[in-house]
Write a structure and sequence with these properties.
Blueprint lengths: L6 E6 L3 H11 L5 E4 L7 H10 L25 E3 L34 H5 L9 H15 L34 H10 L6 E3 L34 H9 L3 E3 L3 E7 L5 E7 L5 E11 L5 H9 L17 E7 L12 E8 L11 E6 L4 H10 L4 H14 E8 L8 E9 L5 E6 L4 H4 L2 H14 L3 E10 L31 E3 L14 H18 L1
Parallel strand pairs: 1-2, 1-8, 2-5, 3-14, 8-16
Antiparallel strand pairs: 4-10, 6-7, 7-8, 9-12, 9-15, 10-11, 11-12, 13-14
């Protein structure tokens, strides 16, 4: 008698990466189940939660923080044991953390994938840029990415399109904000190339989404849905026949004969367990939850690398006042980056550097700064108006190298309300990053000098950047990695990882687009085998 399965493929996690993979499979006629620990939350409710929140600076605050599916900011959910408090703002709900991302969708450079070969540090990818390029195109068209087809995103060769593309961006770049225009006009001539940031905020109708109207509220939620979030493809997957099971936290992968995974066990908020079977399984939780599930299940870890090699774009920041009104806070929250040191021979010695220009309305930060100085009354209003017009916010990131000791593990002492372990993280920024910090600080000093600025806040202590990589690392053999070039686990032929946790190197650009491209490629492989 033929084995009966609950689905051809079960996808654990309904974020942007998992939902794109699920839709790719369901649209080819495969039966798909998506498991999500959280719930469906309508956009209007998240917007109302934000409006009524007293904690506007906490981007997790408008979202559900259930005791069985907590946000990562929930006190006690992450226990840090390293020198750095690793605390990214991850969410549990249908659509995942892209509900409150800044929607930056860069491609990696070919050299980002050859760190060991070219620069003698870190690791190489077992897949090349050319192999991934067609899947970048598919990911960009799925999300409706707005980008420039004429810029060199390495920052090395102005007026040259790079990295190579086989198709143009689906949506042209949005108009430059006045803030971006003025900073670019003054800083770029001093040797700092300004590059448009490809982004998933469409500026024209795309796939049922309206064009961006400049609400400047991308984080924590786009009120009109112009900015892409993972719920878009969760809905597409559902319409294509996929079944989405909410309040279903996966806590165990069950092994069978021949090393195959035969079932996933999930648990509801009330502690009710359910066993679901499938031919193939895709783990598409974030880069922390995915290795935690594998470790709890004792699967895919013959290399002892599950949960290890944790990387982030650990960064620093600076806020200063320019000598002219720039009017930040109009339009999207990010529009571009400075790439003077994105790639080059220096990477054998220190991290690449990306300076991003943050374009959020600065009034809250300014008010807090002034109140600490006991400025109140009419003078407070006057100073807010003056400073808000001239505010410049630089957010800088570095590329961490993979290290075994930087890792995530299930907690042995803390559990959610339905009895599933929370997590323990050990993370230390490495010397590769630290060697780049003085260079970035000199850039900061140059920016301030060029703009005749006044420093307000020197945030040059290390900061989280919410880009989780390396924890189920990709490699060329079963001894040095968790998954192969297909994102298939070495130990289990029907178990795939769809997460930025597979990245062998961090680069300095946001990883989500690459994660989606890899997941679409894996889904195509699975569809041909199921």
């Amino acid at each position: 008698m033929a084995t009966q399965y609950d689905a051809d493929v079960i996808v654990v996690g309904s974020g942007a990466i998992g939902s794109n993979a699920a839709y790719a499979l369901a649209s080819q006629g495969k039966s798909v189940i998506i498991l999500e620990a959280g719930e469906w939350i309508p956009r209007w409710k998240i917007v109302e939660n934000f409006r009524s929140s007293a904690r506007k600076g906490n981007h997790d605050d408008p979202y559900p923080d259930a005791p069985w599916a907590p946000v990562s900011f929930s006190p006690g959910y992450i226990e840090n044991t390293g020198s750095f408090a690793f605390l990214p703002g991850m969410l549990h709900l249908v659509g995942g953390t892209t509900w409150h991302w800044a929607a930056a969708t860069w491609r990696l450079l070919p050299n980002d994938m050859q760190m060991k070969s070219l620069y003698g540090v870190g690791r190489d990818w077992p897949v090349t840029y050319d192999e991934l390029e067609p899947w970048y195109v598919k990911a960009e068209y799925a999300l409706g990415i707005a980008g420039s087809d004429t810029e060199d995103q390495s920052g090395l060769n102005p007026d040259t399109s790079y990295p190579p593309r086989s198709a143009p961006y689906p949506v042209p770049p949005e108009a430059e904000t006045y803030y971006f225009q003025r900073l670019k006009a003054r800083i770029e001539p001093e040797g700092y190339p300004f590059i448009h940031e490809p982004n998933a905020r469409t500026n024209q109708p795309w796939d049922g989404r309206p064009g961006c109207s400049g609400n400047n509220n991308c984080m924590p939620v786009c009120p009109i849905g112009a900015m892409y979030s993972g719920d878009v493809h969760a809905r597409h997957a559902q319409k294509a026949g996929a079944q989405i099971l909410t309040d279903s936290t996966a806590f165990k992968l069950e092994k069978g004969e021949g090393g195959k995974i035969v079932a996933v066990h999930c648990r509801s908020a009330k502690g009710v367990d359910r066993r679901l079977t499938a031919r193939y399984f895709i783990i598409a939780s974030n880069g922390l939850e995915t290795p935690k599930l594998l470790l709890m299940s004792d699967v895919a870890n013959s290399s002892d690398l599950v949960g290890r090699n944790l990387m982030d774009h650990t960064g620093i920041g600076l806020q200063f006042l320019a000598d002219e009104p720039l009017w930040p806070g109009r339009g999207q929250v990010q529009q571009g980056a400075i790439f003077r040191l994105r790639d080059g021979a220096f990477r054998s010695q220190h991290s690449a550097i990306k300076h991003a220009l943050t374009n959020t309305v600065p009034n809250r930060a300014i008010t807090e700064h002034l109140l600490k100085k006991n400025i109140v009354g009419p003078e407070l209003d006057k100073q807010i108006r003056h400073m808000a017009a001239r505010w410049v916010d630089i957010s800088t990131v570095f590329e961490q190298l993979p290290h075994l000791e930087n890792r995530v593990q299930p907690s042995t002492t803390r559990k959610t309300s339905n009895g599933i372990p929370m997590m323990k993280i050990h993370y230390d920024p490495d010397d590769y990053i630290k060697a780049a910090v003085p260079i970035a600080k000199q850039d900061f000093a140059n920016f301030v000098q060029i703009m005749n600025g006044t420093v307000i806040e020197d945030n040059t202590g290390f900061q989280n950047r919410d880009h989780i990589m390396g924890t189920v690392i990709m490699g060329d053999n079963h001894r040095n990695s968790v998954v192969n070039h297909e994102c298939r686990t070495w130990n289990h032929p029907n178990l795939f990882m769809a997460t930025t946790g597979v990245f062998p190197s961090a680069s300095v650009v946001n990883p989500t687009l690459t994660g989606i491209a890899l997941a679409l490629r894996s889904a195509d492989i699975i569809a041909r085998e199921v």
